[in-house]
Design a protein that fits this description.
This protein has a single domain, classed as Hexapeptide repeat proteins (UDP N-Acetylglucosamine Acyltransferase, domain 1), CATH 2.160.10.10. Helix content is 5%, strand content 35%. The protein contains 1 helix and 22 strands. It is mainly beta. The mean pLDDT is 96.
Length: 171
């Protein structure tokens, strides 16, 4: 039944998509989902009426993942660890004499390029790009772009090393 609803409402819905129990969503009409996608139980994907949520082919999204997908692109063959989160918006906090929750939202796109792996419990903040075939360690908080083939970890996430077998460009 979940697949039937998603297939009817989304902009694009690929073949072989598997959706776990209790997966929640908002603005499903803005979603584009590729072939062979798995969305784990209790994941929540919150789109936006004027945005796009694009999930490529053969993406694996672990249980209890959270996507504030105001404008989100996840390319092909990405692994998304259980409980990992992406935030696509943040309050400006201006003016200072108003509660933060009442200030304007700044919406910034988030992109996870092909073959990347996002570790369990990691958090991607608004405006970041995670490069091709990079690894974000479990629990990391990504505040800036991650280069292709990099391994990052920590809070905030910092470069640890290049992936084995990758020839880093000369500086």
């Amino acid at each position: 039944m979940r697949r039937a609803i998603w297939r009817t409402v989304t902009r694009k819905f690929g073949n072989g998509v598997r959706i776990g129990a209790s997966v929640g969503f908002k603005h499903l009409e803005t979603f584009e989902i590729g072939d062979g996608v798995f969305i784990g139980a209790q994941a929540y994907i919150q789109g936006r009426f004027d945005g796009v949520t694009r999930i490529g082919n053969h993406v694996w999204i672990g249980p209890q993942a959270y996507f504030d997908a105001r404008h989100l692109v996840i390319e092909d063959h990405v692994g998304w660890g259980p409980g990992a989160k992406v935030l696509g918006s943040a309050h400006t906090g201006v003016p200072i004499d108003r509660p933060i929750i009442e200030t304007d939202l700044e919406i910034r796109p988030v992109q996870v390029q092909a073959w990347a792996d996002i570790g369990t419990g990691a958090i991607l903040l608004p405006g970041v790009t995670v490069g091709k075939a990079s690894i974000v360690g479990a629990g990391a908080v990504v505040t800036c772009d991650v280069p292709a083939f990099a391994v990052v970890a920590g809070v905030p996430a910092r470069f640890v090393r290049w992936r084995e077998g990758y020839q880093a460009p000369e500086q």
